[in-house]
């Protein structure tokens, strides 16, 4: 069906993940005083913006997608959806999404949405992904934008809480993406994409996965330590992060099945960030007046 083809090139799985994180950021900043219409328009607007970026990314990546087993059957590769039609579809989604954000949210939220879009489409997709081992690092910034947009839409400001979310979600992206690059190593090598495992080897990638998870664990604890969330979030952050780190360290065992290990790291990364996004949505804390004065 034509509708299904167009839906698939928006990458629904990515949209769903971002929907959860933007809602989590919004509810964290709302602290129980929820503007239902604003939340709905923020989530919908940003979801459309993300969908737009994914569609245009498919157009840009048509040549390399055709070389990878995972992506060779995408509609933009097979011609089921032409590049011109996909571009029109992507631009229409972006116009609608940004229109909703501009109308219903504020300049800070819109600014971060624009930043994430430009980094993902303009910097990452057009250049860094194909030419630099640091492409994953650059792409992590765009992946960290959704919860910040949700937070800023509700709060109307970029404060320490928003900064922690930006850093936390950026750090999470790295081991998550490196795990994919390991179990999709052959695909990336065929397409000549310089992800870390292909460009600098598996050993260095394992080390980076461990280090990024360790720093992610520390940064995640900053939300409760700074008074933004409570004990439930703190406990969940410690348990999930430390278990994820333990799983990463298992990669150094002798005779480890590398692909199985990488898929486990990837799968648990999704569980971790989903659990923390839900936890911060409900385990928020009212900021004390002294901290509110400091942040204002």
TrEMBL record:
Any idea what this protein is called? Protoheme IX farnesyltransferase
EC class, as a word, reads transferase
Organism name = Paraglaciecola polaris LMG 21857
Question: Which regions form coiled coils?
Answer: none
Any one cellular-component term (Gene Ontology): plasma membrane
Q: Which domain of life is it from?
A: Bacteria
Q: Which family does it belong to?
A: Belongs to the UbiA prenyltransferase family. Protoheme IX farnesyltransferase subfamily.
Gene, per the UniProt record: cyoE2
Q: Tell me where the transmembrane regions lie.
A: 12-30, 36-60, 81-102, 108-127, 134-156, 162-185, 206-225, 231-249, 261-282
